UniProtKB/TrEMBL annotation:
<dbReference type="InterPro" id="IPR040503">
    <property type="entry name" value="TRHO_N"/>
</dbReference>
<dbReference type="Pfam" id="PF17773">
    <property type="entry name" value="UPF0176_N"/>
</dbReference>
<keyword id="KW-0560">Oxidoreductase</keyword>
<protein>
    <recommendedName>
        <fullName>tRNA uridine(34) hydroxylase</fullName>
        <ecNumber>1.14.-.-</ecNumber>
    </recommendedName>
</protein>
<comment type="similarity">
    <text>Belongs to the TrhO family.</text>
</comment>
<dbReference type="Pfam" id="PF00581">
    <property type="entry name" value="Rhodanese"/>
</dbReference>
<dbReference type="InterPro" id="IPR001763">
    <property type="entry name" value="Rhodanese-like_dom"/>
</dbReference>
<dbReference type="GO" id="GO:0016705">
    <property type="term" value="F:oxidoreductase activity, acting on paired donors, with incorporation or reduction of molecular oxygen"/>
</dbReference>
<dbReference type="GO" id="GO:0006400">
    <property type="term" value="P:tRNA modification"/>
</dbReference>
<feature type="domain" description="Rhodanese">
    <location>
        <begin position="136"/>
        <end position="230"/>
    </location>
</feature>
<dbReference type="InterPro" id="IPR036873">
    <property type="entry name" value="Rhodanese-like_dom_sf"/>
</dbReference>
<feature type="compositionally biased region" description="Basic and acidic residues">
    <location>
        <begin position="319"/>
        <end position="340"/>
    </location>
</feature>
<keyword id="KW-0819">tRNA processing</keyword>
<comment type="function">
    <text>Catalyzes oxygen-dependent 5-hydroxyuridine (ho5U) modification at position 34 in tRNAs.</text>
</comment>
<dbReference type="InterPro" id="IPR020936">
    <property type="entry name" value="TrhO"/>
</dbReference>
<feature type="region of interest" description="Disordered">
    <location>
        <begin position="303"/>
        <end position="340"/>
    </location>
</feature>
Length: 340
């Protein structure tokens, strides 16, 4: 189990990002005890279980997240199967997630390529402090394995952008743009390292000889490498309410369009097609999304006026309390009419 990488105890929320390719044929039976453990401690976020392992990001109080780490790596039903998992910790002032989900899926990162088996073969891990020297070599092809909207916020200098909308498209990109006879050395990176486990295994299965990937991904690089020495330009997209982080894993400047979920830079939010909560330059012209977003924004505004939550577990609690109060008022009215 890793120690906290950013010891900032004054922040109320501790965030754990974890993944491990491991043999979990009992993933289905593990789902309920894992969900109950998290919900009982107020932990929120998403964890994916599959026969090939675990992947996800959650947050909670530091005490709750430390207890979860013990549950996953030592005392819980996983036994020692998750030993050596890639774990990253960070801290936040506000809750990054709204609810807790434990999902069962066929893969913890979807590529739909059975020949890509990280439990059997993966590329060569490169520590963040050695990454700059590798990617500055002229004989290394550098590939960003993330999707187009993630690359748009920030990437490494000289990196190729596959322009994929989903990771399953990465196979087509490799077939059309990379050649094992020509591209003898390929270096890859992603957000936290998990996609590169699959991607590097896939490239090796296709005959590529030397495949490297950034250990711990961009997040570990931004945490480890001094900003003055960084080759990463921009911010790193993350899949929670923070949207993006910068060097030192500090909160970034990006927000999400509530209509299309595309990350927005400060320049995007100055665009004439940007309307908060309704539309952005990336979804202009999509009337259906704009109408749905406008209604969502209206409901959020109403919830704010009531002092209630609109999204997440708190919203469900607020809604249940309102329903109960409405029933109580109806019952009081019925009794009053009966007495009259």
């Amino acid at each position: 189990m890793s120690d906290p990488t950013l010891p900032q105890p004054h922040h109320p929320y501790k965030v754990m990002a974890v993944y491990k390719f491991a043999d979990l044929p009992d993933a289905e039976t593990l789902k309920t005890p894992l969900a109950q453990f998290c919900c009982n401690r107020g932990i929120k976020g998403t964890l994916i279980l599959a026969p090939e392992g675990i992947n996800g990001t959650v947050s909670g109080t530091p005490e709750a997240i430390d207890a979860l780490a013990d549950f996953l790596f030592a005392s819980g039903p996983f036994g020692t199967r998750l030993t050596g998992a890639e774990v990253k910790y960070s801290f936040a002032d506000t809750a990054p997630f709204l609810r807790m989900k434990v999902r069962l899926k066929p893969e913890i990162v979807t590529l739909r390529a059975p020949e890509a088996n990280p439990s059997q073969q993966v590329g060569t891990y490169v520590e963040p402090e050695n990454w700059n020297a590798l990617i500055e070599r002229n004989d290394v092809v550098l590939v960003d394995t993330r999707n187009d909207y993630e690359v748009g916020l920030g990437t490494f200098q000289r990196a190729l952008d596959p322009k994929t909308e989903s990771f399953v498209e990465f196979k087509d990109y490799v077939a059309k743009n990379l050649d094992p006879a020509r591209d003898r050395r390929v270096a890859m990176f992603c957000t936290g390292g998990i996609r590169c486990e699959k991607a590097s295994s896939y490239l090796l299965s296709q005959g590529f000889e030397e495949v490297f990937h950034l250990k711990g991904g961009i997040l570990k690089y931004l945490e480890t490498v001094p900003e003055a020495e960084s080759r990463f330009a921009g911010e790193c997209f993350v899949f929670d309410e923070r949207v993006s982080v910068g060097h030192g894993l500090e909160l970034g400047t990006a927000t999400l369009c509530r209509a299309c979920r595309h990350p927005l830079t400060p320049d995007d939010r100055q665009h004439a097609d940007y309307h908060e909560g309704i539309s952005c330059p990336h979804c202009v012209g999509d009337a259906a999304k704009h109408a749905a977003a406008a209604e969502r924004q209206h409901q959020m505004d109403l919830a704010k006026k009531r002092g209630a939550s609109h999204l997440g577990d708190d919203a469900m609690t607020d809604a249940a309390e309102r329903r109960q109060a409405k029933k109580a008022r109806a019952e009081q009215s019925r009794l009053a009419n009966k007495l009259d």
